[in-house]
Amino acid sequence: MPSLSKIDVNLLRFQEYPAPQNIVNLSLGNDSNINYTSLSTQQQLDVIFSQSSYSNSINISNDRFICYHLTHDYSRIIMYTPDNCINGKTLIINLPQTSLHKHNSIVTLIHEQTLLFHIIVKDGSLLTIKLPLNYILDNGNSVKLAEDWAKVQNPYDFTIRVPHMLYPVSEDLLMVFLEDGGLLGLRKASEEYDFEPLLFNDNSYLQSFTKLFYKNENVTGKAISAVTFNHRYLIILTENYYLKIWDLKSFNLVNEYNLSANIVDEDLHSKDVHQYSDAGNFLSLFQNNLVIYSPQKNGIFQIGSLSVNQADILQFELKNIVGSSLPSSSIWFLADMKLMKPIDLNYTSSYLNLAVLWKSGSLNKFQVLNILYDDLKDYQWIESTNKSLTDSLDELDLPSVIQEENETDEEYYDRCYLTLKSKFSPEAFSKAENVLRENNILIVASDNIKQKKEYLANLETISRDIKGKMDEVSTLSIVGDELILVNTLTPFNHFIYKINTSLEYYYFNLHNAECNDDLSKYLKILDRFTNTLPRHIIHSLSRKYLEISTGKISSTLSPNEKFVENFKTTLHDQFDISNLQKLMDDLNSIDIVSLLNDFIQNYLTMQEPNTTFIESFTTNIFAKISTTEGLYQMISIQNIFVVQILMTFVLLDSTYSYFEEQIEILLHFNQKQLLFQELYKQDKLQLIDAIFKKSTKYSQGAKYYSYLEWNDFIAHNMSLFYSEPLEMNTFFLESIKSYILRSSKQITIEETKMYLRNVGVPFYYKGRKCDEFLLAMLFFTAGQYEEAYKYFQLHDGYKDIHIHELPNFMQNLLESNDSQSLWTPLIKVIVATDHKEARFYYHLSCRYSNHSVNPELALRAIKKSVEISMNDEMELDIVTKQHEQLLAMLIRFSIFDEVIDVLRFGHAFFSSSERYQYFQSLLGNQNPNDKFFSTLINMISTNTEDVLDLQDYNIVDNILSKSLDDDWTSHKKLFTFRYVSKYEREAAEVVFNYWFNLRKDVNSSLKKRYCLIIINILSTFVNNYDQYILNGADVVTLDELKDQCMSL
What we know:
Elements: E1 2-10, E2 23-27, H1 41-48, E3 52-59, E4 65-71, E5 76-80, E6 90-94, E7 106-111, E8 114-120, E9 126-132, H2 133-137, E10 150-153, E11 163-168, E12 173-178, E13 183-188, E14 195-199, H3 204-210, E15 223-229, E16 233-238, E17 242-247, E18 252-258, H4 260-263, E19 283-286, E20 289-294, E21 300-308, E22 314-323, E23 333-340, E24 352-360, E25 363-371, E26 379-384, H5 389-397, H6 409-421, H7 426-438, H8 449-470, E27 473-479, E28 483-488, E29 493-499, H9 502-508, H10 518-530, H11 536-549, H12 559-571, H13 577-588, H14 592-604, E30 614-615, H15 621-651, H16 660-682, H17 684-695, E31 702-703, H18 707-723, H19 730-740, H20 749-763, H21 769-781, H22 785-792, H23 795-798, H24 808-815, H25 824-831, H26 837-851, H27 855-870, H28 879-892, H29 896-905, H30 912-924, H31 929-942, H32 950-962, H33 968-980, H34 984-998, H35 1004-1019, E32 1028-1031, E33 1034-1037, H36 1038-1047
Parallel strand pairs: 1-26, 2-6
Antiparallel strand pairs: 1-29, 3-4, 4-5, 5-6, 7-8, 8-9, 9-10, 11-12, 12-13, 13-14, 15-16, 16-17, 17-18, 19-20, 20-21, 21-22, 23-24, 24-25, 25-26, 27-28, 28-29, 30-31, 32-33
Helix pairs in contact: 6-8, 6-20, 7-8, 10-13, 10-15, 11-12, 11-15, 11-16, 14-16, 15-16, 15-18, 16-17, 16-20, 17-18, 17-19, 20-21, 21-22, 25-26, 26-27, 26-28, 27-28, 28-29, 30-32, 31-33, 33-34, 34-35, 35-36
């Protein structure tokens, strides 16, 4: 029965930047013995994002630790601090040569305030690296390394006796275990870390020498694991399963035990005892208790105690032999183990715990051997989940993403793609895309939605495989007092095992027959029926419950009728009637009322826990992520049960009135749980920052050293999240703000659409003004301008909203004098004491014309603004701007008849000079030029009344006159305008001036034709004294024109 659960802690997944920002490349110089290595930025990233051969963690204080990796080619060490891996240093240490025997020839020590690496490299040299902790932890690169930070020496010639493993006894003494089974000490001879050899009193050297001439086997074999006891005794486990104890004072072997004798039985003969394949952590010591691992069968642990007799000789007394609980059909290898004080698993008895990490390829398994009493006899194996809840739930998510009725194939694909992308680290997802690209599996424009979904299915499978490889384990570490951390072979990728709360315990043991109390029975009944439904049903149900809570299901329906509606749209025809009957029979066999009340009171309505944690002054990325993932796991499990319980009331519609109070509570929790889950998927970092801002004094989270403190801090944050009111929810507003205001973080239009669909639309309250105003802005930001306009039109320009009803970020915009937000003018309008709907639509039009690709809506808004103004007796302060905006939109759409109307009726708000500029722009622009002019001529010629008054006529005439040039076209336009405006004489003068003054070189027949036009115009005048035109200062009469025409 799993009592612990795996929590993923990928240190880069939550970050705004997908890679560390402060990578430092260290090389040992360019001496004759040492090769200097330089790396480009891309090469550095390739190094830190490649899978390593080994990783481990080093505690430097109770709340801080350093992680290091040995690269797959054993040539570099990568180091970072998990609490600040983005802005803190990421060190790449380039070794002069590869390590001699993988990680087994590398040891680490913390001495005073310095981290020491001792490494035997390929040629047998000893490399010592000294890194001050303040240098490693310094973010600003202000601390410099001393010139002697690395040293290479040859304290012993390892040409004949080849080292197999290096072990640090202390800062002053290193042990070198040799391939021939011998051991050699390296003692520090100076403060500059010069080492000298120290021979132990064993016969291994003689054996290795005589082996050159005679066959002489070493019975015990070489060392494969070592620990020290009381700084006095060195305990060694050999490959042939011997335990050797050396006295570090006398350098003598004081005890030796053949451990294989303890495990030989009827099933295991001495000749079948396997050797260890390589060195590893097969000894674990806590106080005076020692555990020894053997790879026999499926793994055997010999447990005993150490004691010193009167002769100062350390003895080992075997107390118990424990076989692993692994099935015989599987093949697992021990990755690491740690003997430790009991963790707080709430068992009745616990004396010691052995944390055991197994691996099989990229798979892993974690167990705890709980030793009950100090006699070391009684024990029990405690299981854990080996897949995080995030991974388990993700397997069900993509098939449940159903295409909405109003969603295009392209929008549906984008949503599925971004949903999938949010599940994996940027590194894993990018690698998966590259794999598909290299295999020429791509999305092309001609692909239909079925082909695109096949691509996504492949992408999901490969991403999950890559994540599985990234999760390949290396070692265990104990963080703080008892937190169990797993170091993987992927830099910045860890997981931590969490002690399950009661509800988590119920969830992870749903399929365990031993867990069978009343509440467990109830939850198992629900789970069994749920498993008979299609995958997407539960997701659809939870969304339907959300629609009830947010008022999106018709308010005319009773609560019970809303549940009936949910049944019709989600569950109808989705289950077998026999399964439903089984559910009913099972529910009738238990006391649902008391169990439901117990579930709500003890597992949902959480009391604020005791604050056992310590608030942090600075950001701790590791603590932040582990808290967020723990919180996500707890809330997700709660929601699974809440939705399943609510499902029973959908199936049993007649029970609503009886359970009304409980149903309302469950609906309330479902809404908040879904909000958390969706905000987590959208932006984990922003969510947890918003939570920490409210839950801790310094907004940086907390430090915790034990499981009690960790679970208390999770419960503290969860209680705070649940206590936040649904109306104007802080966490909802913090998230929507980043999309509406477009903060410094780059957010794509596709990401905004995804947020809109997953968060904005589902969680707004229908009919609530502020919510619908926010939704309108969000639609606008997502590029869905028509939908935005529908919401902007609600509530009469959103009048009667008081400033205190607005979210804080909107109030801040109003208070900021230098706010450049496109929404500030609109927000000022809706909270103004003299709110005017016309003013609202004017500013809305400006938003659409300046910040969207849908100017039709800008035109619609400004027309509505002007229309409202015309019906309002009060003079509006923006009347001129209104008409300027109206003109801009009309001109943009070439609606020139209305442009002319605005100009000729707009003398009250446009001065003559302003109208002159408009007419000049319209008549002088070469693109709409002819259309505007033809519209003007058509309006003048078809109207019985004057279209332009004298002032506007003079404006247009002046513009056309100044536009005259040497061609007939410009003269013809002036002639036409004057003629249709009933200024016939002036029109005729244009013709005469062009053909008889400017174009004297044209042939006589052409002149005669235009002369006849002038004659015809003047002939229409009744009085003879009106039949003339002016040619400069001269008067030309009709008769003179006739004579001139006859002479042509």
